[in-house]
Amino acid sequence: MIREDILRDFPELFEKKMVNGKEVSVQDTIAVLTRELNPAIAAALTARRSLLNSPEAVPERYGWPKWEDTFFDPVTKHSWTFRQIARGLIDNFLGRESEWHWRLNDEAPIPENAHPLKNPGLELTGPWHPLDMAFNALNSPAPMNMPDFEDASPPHFQPHGSPVDRPIGLFSALKNAREIFEGDWAKREYEVSKKGKKRSYRINKPPEEWPTIFVRPPSIHVRYEHVRVDGQPAPGMIVVAVLWALSNYNALKRAGTGLYYYIPKLQTPQEAAIVEKLLSRIEEIIGLLTGTLKIKMLYEEGNAGRYLPIILWVLRRRLLGTNVGRWDYLGSLIEMWKNDPQGIFPDPQSIGMASPNMIAYQRFNSLMMLMAGMKEKELRTAAPIGGMAAVMIYPPGDPYGRACSNPAALRGIAVDKLRERLLGLIFVPAEPLPADRRPTLGEILDDRVKGRLYDTYRQSWVASPEEAYVAAGNRPLRAPVAQLQAILDSPLETVDVRGKPVPTVTSGLSDAERSLFRSCGLLDEDGRIKPRVIDPDSLNAPEKLFTRELWDSIYSPPRGEVTIEHIQHAFYMAANYGFQILNGNFAAAIDDYELKLRFMNDLATYRIDVSWLWTLLHHQAPVTRDGRLKRPALTNDGVEPAVDDLPVKAGTPFTPELFEKVWDYHNEWTREFFAELDRRGDPGRFDRTKAPVIMELLKRQLVSPRYIQHSARVLFVVAVANQQEREQLFQAIFELSREEIVQRVETGDLDRKALAAHDYVYDIFPG
């Protein structure tokens, strides 16, 4: 079942174990759970593909469920209707003990170190391989950490052409976690050579001061070729969830903590039921009370939003919070509208978390968490979690001196988390207020308006462990609510960044920032904080809550420009990140020439760029403003697309011919970039032969009429292939029908791997 080299290199992960006093076979557990859950996973992924291919209009295809639609609870084995689930959610919010009343975490208590309201601050995500990444995570002042096996994961493959002794990063990360929790690295240093210099790393904190660990497994759509059950690759979620639990439960329990997971990419209640069944079965196998394994969930799929209260209900025994995963969420919205020429999204770079539809998304998330997490009129059993701050700071030794931009990155995260904190302030008045009456935070705190204030967004995501960066984000999340107004009103203090004044981390708001906060509805004209007001009477029936107006505010496409400059930028980001994936690097810091900052990319940002470019080409969408494609040049910030060249007039459709020019310009940038590395004597970290591979892949994918929901799966299968195999894979994925592929496999003209790759990419489950 386990590939021979994996068993040889990582025997400690797969040996039989005593867990919670029970002898457990790791391999048997993976096999049993895979057999139990595979039919449900196949059905869920087939349903995803059917939804993508449905000809229905978006509002019907992605609308709220019908009131009498039924949903199954895998623990009680009972089914409830959408109306009953919504009724129970409202009853909990209103404090009614009704037949349908339910709330989150009402069975197994929430451990103190996992409670999202009792541990305010940042959640740091990133890979735990190489080992120094894990050490940096544990040394970080972020109170929560996510060893990532999903978007920014260590690779689960060995890139073609890499040294044969290169370990599979996925299993190395699991081994690192096991050794760390067992105390093997408590007093040892880890030495590694980076850019020709030896560096030493060690864990600087005792275990009781480590951040709380929530492991993020992959979603149900990812499979691991080197772990097979009945001849088929096993779901990555099952492999990681089982290995993490059986390898680490004993050590984590001794340390006073537990098994906690961060669940990604759920789209439907059926998918949530798979997770509930998986975790409840692990609890059963190692002898734990149902609900002991706690989870957080990334609410990062637009399709999940219309089912959100039902997903919460399915996961109610263990769900602590839902995160507004901004990058995949934006990609999923582009995907929802991909077939509608009237639903073309503007430049994704222009859609931030302060855009109206993203504000509506964050507010919906906080409201659902408030309603499901209320107990005795207090928010006690769950809380919403903010989105990712993906900008990173440059190291002091950056060859172009770009560390001068770091104050802008520090200010950016401080303002981002302050905005989230204010967005989570919800006031429920004791008596109905006039429709135009929104009391200020000061009035509420002074008890001049009766009611209850809820401070919901106290945790949020970050991708960079640097102490100053984390501190900048922690500050607004940890500040007492009574100090928030003073933070905004502090004196304006600035530093010079590239000739422009940028507010410091501790500065009060600038005029531009204050204007942004007002546009989000967070401040009045005098700059006073105004919490959101929720009148309980406005939500006392399901029909009043899940309205078409709410749907429109969350899902309607935003208006804006489609520019040739941002088309070129999106291709630059996609090609650069795809190049790193092919080299086995899932967490990639890419120099963003538009932002003039270092930007953390993962599979989610790749999804945005590829989905948007595919949609533009699919509809040959016109650019909306005169612009120019840019040629590369060596600037003070390195080689960038910097020289205005080919003019593109407003109204010009984005045709395959225009895309070819974008493609050519990026090839030119790549040549200049590598030439600059050579001039500096920098060999670079990655295999340059992968550059033409990602360019060929993107050319074929973006002009193909076939839409791929999770584009990175193409990268996964291509990364391990040689040139001849790649050509077959490209044909099977982008050109041939499945019937043609089967025929060519039977005649020997195609390798069976090509059919397996096609089925994997398109969620096809033969038989």
Write up this protein.
This protein is 43% helix and 16% strand. The chain is of the alpha/beta class and 767 residues long. The chain folds into 2 domains: 1-561, Malate synthase, domain 3 (TIM Barrel), CATH 3.20.20; 564-720, Malate synthase, domain III (Malate Synthase G, Chain: A, Domain 4). The protein has a 5-stranded parallel beta sheet with strand order 9-6-5-21-17. A 3-stranded parallel beta sheet has the order 12-13-14. Strand 12, helix 9 (269-286) and strand 13 (294-299) form a beta-alpha-beta unit. Helix 3 (26-53) runs antiparallel to helix 9 (269-286) and helix 13 crosses helix 20 (548-555).
The name of the CATH topology of the largest domain is TIM Barrel
How many distinct folded domains? 2
| CATH-assigned homologous superfamily of the largest domain | Malate synthase, domain 3
CATH class of the largest domain: Alpha Beta
Spans with pLDDT under 50 lasting ≥5 residues? none
Instruction: Determine the mean pLDDT.
Output: 96
Judged by helices, strands and strand pairing, the structural class is alpha/beta
- Beta-strand residue percentage: 15-25%
Radius of gyration: 25 Å
In whole angstroms, the N-to-C terminal distance is 21 Å
Give the % helix: 40-55%
Total helical elements? 28
- Number of DSSP strand runs: 28
Architecture of the largest domain, CATH level 2?
A: Alpha-Beta Barrel
Largest sheet: 5 strands, parallel
